[in-house]
Records
---
Amino acid sequence: MINGISINYYLMLSTVLFIIGAVGVMARRNTIILFMCIELMLNAVNLLLVAFSVLHNDASGQVFVFFIMAVAAAEVAVGLAILSMIYRNIKSIDTDLLGNLKN
Amino acid sequence: MKGLLIISALGIIAMLAEIFKFKKMLLWIVLIGIIGAYAATLMEWQTGMSISYFKDMIAFDKPAIAFSGIILATAFFWFILANDYFEEDTNVTDHFALVLFAIVGALMLTSFKNMTTLFLGIEIMSIPLYVLAASKKGDIKSNEAGFKYLIMGSFASAFLLFGIALIYGASGSFDIMEIRSYISTQGGNLPLFFNVGVVFMLVAMCFKVSAAPFHFWAPDVYEGSPTLITALMSTIVKTAAFAAILRLFMVAFGNVSVTWTAVLAGVIALSLVIANFTAAVQSSVKRMLAYSSISHAAFMLMVILANQRSNISVDAIIYYSLAYSIGSITAFGVLYNVTRNGNENFEAFNGLAKRSPMLALCMTIAMLSLAGIPITAGFFAKYFVFTTMIGTPYKWLLILAVLTSAVGAYYYLKVVIAMYFKQGHHNETLPVETSNKIVIAVTAVITVLLGLAPAFISELFKF
């Protein structure tokens, strides 16, 4: 129980957010939205970690969240750099136009 | 631990080389640094104790040191092989720094003791590799490989994190020893979401080692990336990921094997079948090697599946990583030199025996080793894996592995046949740099030596 709300609700909310993100990564074609979906998955994890951290009365879960935020920022920085490189080459960032590596 | 620090320092030195203008010497500095790191790692082996650092975040025990040794040795050969790759490019120092930081991540993965270091190790290893995969700026294939690797890598990381969060929720700790003791105190009454978390982590790690059905990104990424970066991915990254899986599933989750063995058995069976049959119909050698790396991943996962907490498993996986890394360095070294003109198909190898007999011989040794044919390291690697499987209920997997290995022999030998029995378009000798020749020859000799004296290595790794 955290402030009168059972931990199961936190678990369900973050699972739903995580699934929305995962489905988005698989279904969407716009690469910027792909990045947003991955962020959504990571933030679902952050929410879960913070909830458990309060539940266990243990700060390490919250510290872990900082690591995730830092790494997510690094990942997006690299991702956007690669995207801008792709845009320079084919003048588009739609994943449908990226099919050069199929047999 | 000292090895980890030395490599980190080398990465920073590599970044400074651009400012202080010692670019020309950088390769030598890096090679000497890697030898230094190797020596420091071996010294820790001598003391023979598991020492933990940073409040139990990292611990260098004997398996960790052995895996670090394999990674550093592979890195040493890789840097020599890559010396002219670095010269061709304008941003030499950045490439050096990225590769070195990826190695730092790999070393962290061999020695993590806490979920935090596991996650950070994976990310420190992966993020530089996303950049390196996309490092041919003008080539859309390379860009696409980098992008695909990034999306799939972050997707897998998200699964890993969700698994970590669920396990933290149940056990209240990120420390793998505490998770282990939590499992044994709970007995059979683990909450459902703990088991879900273990399966999520397994799925994420299967993504990272590209085992089927989570392998679909690997052939594309391997094909699109520059050949030498592919070599890095299929040697150092694989070894590190397996060191991590070994620790995670044997130490942390060893006692809840019921929840993950069924999934893992399915993953292995699928990987063996899909990888070997798809590899047999590939026309590009690089893609063939990508599928072959999936089937090797399946073999190494079999050791985890056997889940015998004994030296045999650790020995088997260390020997397999060593044999596979060394064999791959030879294979990718030859591939890099043969495919410089851009043609990566089997035809590029036609008549190589006449153009460069030495390269053809070394490639043959590498292919025999990857196929697992006696007197090469690959044979004993597979043999040791099979011995760990004896006594487990997964005998059907053993039979499947042997059968699919036979298919494997077909596509490896296709390269050998192309080299020796087919007429090529070119007849002039292939220009190969001396340093490349030395690396290829030395790794081929090591492959044969490992195959002739396998007991030597397993004696060395007695724990």
---
Amino acid sequence: MPYEAWKDNEYIEQLLAELRANGTNVIVGSFDKLINWGRSNSIWPLTFATSCCGIEFVSLGAARYDMARFGWEVARASPRQADFMMVAGTIVHRMAPVMRRLYDQLAEPKYVIACGGCAISGGPFRKSYHVVKGIDEIVPVDVYCPGCPPRPEAMIYSIMQLSRKMKVERFFGGVNRQEKIKDFLANHPEESLGY
Amino acid sequence: MANIQEKIAKLFPEATFEDGEILLVNIPDAKWHQLAKCLKEDAELHFDHLVTIVGMDWTDKLGCVYYLNSTKHNTSLSVKVTTDDREKPMIHSVHDVWKIATTFEREVYDFFGIIFINNPDMRRLFLSIDWKGYPLRKDYDMNPEVNPVSLENERQEDTTVSYVEKEDGTIEKKVVEIFAPEDFVVNIGPQHPATHGVLRFRTAVDGETIKKIDFYSGYIHRGIEKICEGLTYPQTLHFMDRMDYFSGQQYHHGLCLAIEKALGIEVSRRAHVIRVMMDELSRIASHCLFLGTFCMDLGATTMLFYTLRVREQILDIMEKTCGARMTFNYGCIGGVMQDLHPDFVKDVKELLAVLPKNIKEYNELFIGNVIAKGRLEKVGVLSREDAISYGVTGPSGRASGWACDVRKTHPYSIYGELDFEEVVYTEGDSMARTKLRIAEIEQSAKILEQLIDNIPEGEYCVKVPKIVKLPAGHYFQLVEGCRGAFGVYIESDGGTSPLRLKLAPPCLPLANVVDHLTQGSKIADLITIGGSLDYIVPDIDR
């Protein structure tokens, strides 16, 4: 996909600028490139779906949309073997602690895609008494993928965005990402998450 | 209808009657249990299928409306039981008459706080045990601070309560253990690849043999019924796509029929035909996906690619006309949203041409397979009586020999004039449930064949008032979804939004029967039995 066809290029440029601010180590930088090339092309999702979006995720895995050609096909049932979690569907009060626990169980480096209107903001169920108004209140989100449900193409685009993001990260030395997650978790302690 | 009324009036002089499409019997709570027993056991009445229990809050009183069907005489009846007490409302349970009532009553308790006397399990069904208030009551406090999102694990209890009536009429609260002290309990779900969504089973096992299952839902309870009370009628429609997301078209059809019935709107013939065709296309797509995911549960991943081929073809047809792949929002009050796409007829004909070949392939690949036979035949056998008592409708009910297809028993739209067979098997095992769905694909194709060359000209949507106000009263409509009978109950006070919109999904009874079916089976059978019942979790939870 040509560079101009992407949206959110500013965001990636900003990430790059942050990384380049301190200069790049020649040796570690090369290793970074190699490792990022590898992991950005084999992002394994966690099989996690609560509702409608999950069915589109099944379509994504089937022959027509075939996410295998990007190296994402190994959907893992155990969070310990997965790289990212595609939150496909509404998250309700009862599910919230379960989802947070799944997120905690993912091995570092880990990523989250909020897939569909419900995961982003509560979607059509925002007015409900039992729906979380956006999963970014519970876990840090890397990519938002709007739609109700998003088409498989949109899902492919969002995972490609994630893979782009991974490519400009620093795997060695750069602990920036982990610190961000720590900050988020410190600001969202388990006890006090009322609105 | 008159006979039923006469008969009940003779036996229960306290009962009062309200005429309507379905006769409504008002009965005081004290006599309700006796009436329920009589309704079921009397050979002339024989109301053996409890369709749903609608909890209601009329602000001055609380109560339930029970919808009953007779499988023998094909008659319907509704019974209303009310209580004035808002602090501690109580109604007698009918769990010993219809087995599904145990769970339906739990749902009403969860939403309205009505306690059912003698029900063995009075826990909440969808909400956590620490939830404050009863959300579907009119005076429920919607402030999110009352019930905030908690990231702490939910408090669990191994006991349940039961309110037992003693002989002198006093009511005693009893604490009941769910599992025996020596039971070894394994937790399956909510995050499990084979539970088809976020459903949770607490399974007591003895070695590999299942002793008891306690099913937990509510992990995707979105409170659709409550949201609908604040929306206008056309706005409520789009939620129908998001419950059982494979039966979106049928559920739309059901709610539209209920509203049109109330408004007295006659839909054009063209709209009828379009709706029925869309229903049947969804049914094929749904059964195809069932087959794919079910085989995936059993470890036969390849099948998914074969079945999704047909499903994608159908989704393309839908997309051209409706503009979406899954949440179509196509049916509307008075007809359908848009006219058919010019390619529709050609595309459907292409689909019909390839279907028989595909079905043959499915049969060769999976049904005849030795492993599939070994794992499915004589596993999870559901008898006809139990299917009725547990309210298991749809393909799962028909696999047990119960002819429960709403398209045949209570024909709606143009189903009455179409020529198709209601497939009924008598084995009642997982294999019958699977094979029946393949046979239903053939029948749906037969309906499509009859209609595809006979789509009449005319308007696709008749004129409907801009502001939809339903006359005060209550309306009930049953339609056949992909997984069973789907009921819509609307109670209106004459305003623009419903006073109560109850959606009676087919999947709650399906998940509820898992405990009964798996007792004595192996853990591995739980996956095949659950898979062959084909419940959709957002449909259970709403």
